[in-house]
Amino acid sequence: MKKILVSTALLAGVLSYAGGFRVSLQGVKQLAMAHTSAHAEDASVAFFNPAGMSFIPSKLSIVAGGFGASNRVTFQNLNTLQTTETDNPLGTPIYAAVTYRPLEKLTVGFSFTTPFGSTIEWPSDWEGKEMVQKLELKSYYFQPMVSYKFNDWLAFGASYIYAKGTVNWDRAVTQFGGQLNLDSDASGHGYGFGFYFRPDPKVDVSIAYRSPVDMKAKDGTATFKFPSTSIYPLLGLNSSGTDGFTATLPLVEEYTIGLTYKVTPKWLISADFNYHGWSRYTKLTLDFASAPIATGNPDPTVVVAPKNFKNAKTFRLGTQYAFSDMIYGRLGAYYDESPYSDDHFIPETPSFNTYVVTGGVGFKLKQFGVDIAGGYAMPQSRNVNNKTLGFYGQAKATAYYFGLGLSYNPF
């Protein structure tokens, strides 16, 4: 039994993807300005800070948009010099929001976003195939919210978060020429709140907090496929090679401070600071129904995977210039820290210290708005030194994003 199958760290890798990969694509206009948050022009501010809804100039505001996200990861074994690249499909994050002000001081809203999600696909026969061959993640945030405006310059807002997600992961089991698939739905609850200030017509300040969300996977399915079914009874599996598992997947809290300053009536500058509390992600526990996966534990059906994530920061700077009342140009740049060090790098959820440059244009046609944005990411290469997995080499990546957003402020 000790030769079998699944290492604790590898199982943790797939499930950490739900909490360890944050996609900053919740507003096309915001992306063009480095995904900064202190912009209360339409309902897209709702995800970033519910208090900002009180400063939207329209009583009713509706927004929707989507992105294309492409990334490629390259791994090179420095001993053999063999290089492997991922063949990831195009990711398509989407968002939508609506806000309405029934009373002068009260605004209600709803935001739908996909803040976590991607697909990574390595060649089926690559040297890390026992860690991952393909991993798919989808997540959805549903946020009803309310904001109260105390006076002309201060509002407070709060939101409830219902999160729903799925994960599907394939990896090889070379000891028996087989494969393992982990498939699970998960859900969780959280909240957010924030303050939005406008002490001067030229200045917007956004302070927001988004709570941790513990995603609970109660009915996960682990499916083992081997050339011979005689192996299944050794693992306590049924004739189809399946087992159940449960787990709690932590998504961490996020703190944001944003500032927008109107240098002139046509030109504004925005800056954000994000703080991500990844240090709460110290371990991940998976409880299998029958399979004795953790051979060294008192209960071999319980897998406890140590995770050594650390808190991370993001620094953002963006700008917008109004060429006319109808056409707006936008630029931005930001730096995003990885939540783990080189000796904890895992190919299921590859993460890098990353510089990103962004840009876009916006068009206003009376009550309608159309925004286009793009971004190019420059992840910094990593010298992989994961002794726990026996995974060594150099990892590099590239990524780019593009998006189209629509807004409607009828009255």
TrEMBL record:
Belongs to the OmpP1/FadL family. The keyword Transmembrane applies. Keywords: Cell outer membrane, Membrane, Signal, Transmembrane, Transmembrane beta strand. It is found in: Cell outer membrane. This is Long-chain fatty acid transport protein. It is a multi-pass membrane protein. The keyword Signal applies. Its main location: membrane. It holds the Pfam family Toluene_X. It comes from Chryseobacterium profundimaris. Gene3D superfamilies: Outer membrane protein transport protein (OMPP1/FadL/TodX). Coiled coil: none annotated. InterPro entries: OMPP1/FadL/TodX (IPR005017).
